[in-house]
Amino acid sequence: MGPRLSLEEKRKRMMDIFHESQEPYLLKELERIGPKQKGIVSQSVKDVVQSLVDDGMCHCEKIGSSNFFWSFPSEVAVKRANKRAELEKELAQMQAKNKELTDSIGEALLGREQTDERANLLEELAETEASFKEQQAELQKFKECDPVLMNQKREEARMARDAANRWTDNIFIMQSWVRDKFNMDMDQFNKHFEIPADFDNV
C-alpha cells in the first residue's frame, strides 16, 4: 500500500488525469481510473472531483442523465494569466496608495522638525493647557452661582410648586365631593386618608 495522499496531492493527480487525456469523464470512469493510474482511493474520488468543481478548476455538465467532468490545460493557463493580471493590478494600486501615504506623511512632517523653537512652543502649549484645566476646575466650584443655572432652578421650583398646588386643589375638590355625597365630616375624611390638619397649598 502506497503512502497516504493529502487532499491537495489528490487534486493535483486528478487534474493530471484530465490534462493528460484532455477528455470528459463520467464519475464512475474516474473512480476506476483514479486508483489505477494515480493511486487515488476510489472512495475519495467523488469528493476530490467535487472540490475541483467548487474551485472552478474542473467543469461539470449534465448531459442526459449523466454528469460529465473535464478540464483542459489551456483553461488553467488562461485562469492563471488572469489571476496574475489581477494580482499585478492590485499590487500597482497598493504601491500607488503607499506612495500617496508616504507623501502625506512627508507633508505632515514639514514644519515639525525638532528644533529649540518647536520644543519651547510645545512646552508653552502644555503649560497653557494645564492652566486651562485648573481654571475649569476652579470654575466648577462656582457653578451653583451661575445665573443661568439659578434661573433654571427657579423655573423648575415654580413648576414643582404649581404641580403640588394642583394636586392639593384636587384633594380639596375630592373632600367637598365626599362631604356632599356621603355627608362625611372633614375630620373623618382627613383621618381616614392620613391627611394632616395643616394641609394646604404651598
UniProtKB/TrEMBL annotation:
Mnd1 HTH domain sequence ranges: 14-73
GO molecular function: double-stranded DNA binding
UniProt-listed Pfam families: LZ3wCH, Mnd1
GO CC list: nucleus
GO term, biological process aspect, one: reciprocal meiotic recombination
Ranges where the Leucine zipper with capping helix domain occurs: 149-201
Top-level division of the source organism's lineage: Eukaryota
Location(s), subcellular: Nucleus
PANTHER family cross-referenced by the UniProt entry: MEIOTIC NUCLEAR DIVISION PROTEIN 1 HOMOLOG
Family from the record: Belongs to the MND1 family.
Task of the protein: Required for proper homologous chromosome pairing and efficient cross-over and intragenic recombination during meiosis.
Name the UniProt record assigns to this protein: Meiotic nuclear division protein 1
Source species of the chain: Coemansia guatemalensis
